[in-house]
């Protein structure tokens, strides 16, 4: 049997620790938010991405990419949040082939109500345990993994969403 290099063992350990830490944080914050607001953490995250987008809307493909989930999973999440009145599906005004998720007034209200608790949970379970330099390193590492998210150069029309599909 081939021997495992110690660097490989260290690398595998690092990946496992990172994965465990990400799941632990999501679980801790998610449980508290769910218990206090009735909102799932992933719904909060989706509403937050929409709130930051121009006109409170994003194409489903782009939103799924931002969240790091499949478009089919996102579609299910959109349907669940529609049941609460937080999000609606609307056709793209430029290309009817593209569906946008749009944050509703009720969604903004729900997000606004949950935001202080979410921030307090993230601070206590995460940010307060890291130095500002570590937080910056984490952002850089995360962007190296999933790519940067530019909040200012975000179109909602066919140009941005269709370009993603064609690429």
Written description of the protein model:
The protein is mainly α. It has a domain at 32-115: Winged helix-like DNA-binding domain superfamily/Winged helix DNA-binding domain (Arc Repressor Mutant, subunit A), CATH 1.10.10. The chain is 66% helix and 8% strand. The protein contains seven helices and three strands, in the order H-H-E-H-H-E-E-H-H-H. The protein has a three-stranded antiparallel sheet. Helix 1 (6-37) packs across helix 5 (105-125), helix 2 (41-52) packs across helix 5 and helix 3 packs across helix 4 (71-84). The N and C termini lie far apart (43 Å). Mean pLDDT is 84; it is low at 151-167.
């Amino acid at each position: 049997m081939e021997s495992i290099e110690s660097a490989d063992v260290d690398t595998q350990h690092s990946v496992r620790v990172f994965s465990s830490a990400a799941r632990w944080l999501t679980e801790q914050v998610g449980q508290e938010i769910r218990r206090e607001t009735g909102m799932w953490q992933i719904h909060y995250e989706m509403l937050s991405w929409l709130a930051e987008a121009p006109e409170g809307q994003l194409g489903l493909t782009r939103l799924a990419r931002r969240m790091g989930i499949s478009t089919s999973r996102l579609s299910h999440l959109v349907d669940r949040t529609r049941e609460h009145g937080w999000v609606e599906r609307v056709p793209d005004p430029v290309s009817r082939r593209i569906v946008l998720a749009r944050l509703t007034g009720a969604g903004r209200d729900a997000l606004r109500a949950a935001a202080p608790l979410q921030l307090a949970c993230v601070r206590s379970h995460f940010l307060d345990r890291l130095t500002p330099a570590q937080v910056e390193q984490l952002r850089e590492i995360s962007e190296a993994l999933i790519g940067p998210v530019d909040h200012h150069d975000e179109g909602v029309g066919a140009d941005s969403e269709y370009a993603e599909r064609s690429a």
